[in-house]
Design brief:
Radius of gyration: 23 Å
Largest sheet: 8 strands, antiparallel
Strand order of the largest sheet: 3-2-1-8-7-6-5-4
Strand content: 25-35%
Number of helices: 2
Low-confidence stretches: none
Helix content: 25-40%
């Protein structure tokens, strides 16, 4: 290997090292920004849910101004969730709930692909998505 080949290899190694450092720094920065955004999102105040409020049953999916979206979700005693037939809300169809669980003041829907939506109980009897999103989403038990 001659001198110019060695210089070329060293230069390539330095460039590659700089690129890896830049990618690592960019990933860390993106993670910090995401954490800051999550911390800045307002959390809903907790309202105690009455006994049985978040149990199995049929729930209407509500959008803007608590208007029904035309979609129902059935929460079964076994922990399974199923979107009712005829749902035309593309966001809910893509989410495709398959499971659910309830906490003291929260109700969690699990999607087929593993992500989750958390809802907090509100005094008006609805369950509002927490943290709130650009497009409101709530549940109301039938």
């Amino acid at each position: 290997m001659n001198w110019s080949d060695r210089v070329s290899l060293k230069a390539a190694a330095l460039i590659l090292g700089a690129a890896v450092s830049a990618l690592t720094a960019g990933t860390a920065l993106a993670q910090r920004q995401k954490q800051q955004q999550q911390q800045q999102q307002p959390k809903l105040p907790e309202t105690p849910a009455p006994a049985g409020a978040g149990g199995p049953g049929r729930y209407a999916m509500l959008r803007e101004e608590n208007k029904e979206s035309g979609c129902l979700v059935n929460l079964q005693q076994s922990g399974r969730a199923q979107l009712g037939p005829g749902c035309m809300d593309q966001g809910l169809v893509v989410f495709d709930p398959v499971g659910w669980s309830a906490g003291r003041n929260s109700l969690i829907l699990r999607a087929r692909k593993g992500h989750r939506l958390t809802f907090m109980y509100r005094p008006d009897g609805t369950w509002l998505r927490d943290p709130p999103d650009k497009r409101p989403l709530a549940l109301r038990k039938y």
